[in-house]
Amino acid sequence: MMDHLDDLRFAHVLVDTADAASMDHFKALDLDIETRPDMARWSDTQAAVEKLVRGQLQRARPRDAVLGAGQGLDGTGPRCWVVDAIDGLENYARGVPVWATQISLLEVSGGDYRPVVGVVSAPALGRRWWAVQGHGAFTGRSLSSASRLCVSRVSKLPDASFAYSTLTGWEEHGRLNGLLQLSRAVWRTRAYGDFWPYMMVAEGVVDVCADPALSPGDMAAGAVIVTEAGGSFTGLDGHPSPLGGSAAASNGLLHGELLEYLNVR
């Protein structure tokens, strides 16, 4: 546990670096709000942030593998850092403050990688969330100024708040029917997208959320934060690994019903 707490402190240092770099470019260029932004230049910013984080990891954790969206996988071994430099890049490009850096540490357990440390930092919102396996999940400005996270106790779908990603993604993956059926069964739905609904599940202000297609960087930090807050985090197939390509998160009480609906074709 002490090693993981040290990794958590280091992960906070990494997101401090990422936050400073990404905020330097946030809203720095004129945006043409009449058209979609040129994502290429913002992807360059994302890659630059990832490069900074990778440099720190190489110096401080040279034996650990690193997986990032921009540069792929470097290294092998039982420990792997996963870097999502700017989750919500489209929001970032349009000046919407809902984007974050996500950094997590995965370790091999039972023949599969499982997240043991996760930090999600949304500097434009002034919010940060983190967790260490077996140590709980927290939110706050810093390690010394934090409050513990706990999922909701809503136990019936008609009372539940459900967050999801864009409808087109569900349609493209053949799961729109299940999504629509679930949306009719719950109290309310909101399409927040990206990292935020998973953090809201951990905070207990949203009860269930899901995405049909995600990368490991989109899921790994959220997985340990949600589970340490008392919730459940799996793929749509029910497997607990954050490497399965899809995600379903809940307060735990509603997880079985969530999966049943979302697997309707």
TrEMBL record:
Source organism superkingdom: Bacteria
The organism of origin for this protein: Nocardia rhamnosiphila
InterPro entries tied to this protein: Inositol_monophosphatase-like
The protein's name: Inositol monophosphatase family protein
PANTHER family given in the database record: INOSITOL MONOPHOSPHATASE, INOSITOL-1-MONOPHOSPHATASE-RELATED
One family name in Pfam for this protein: Inositol_P
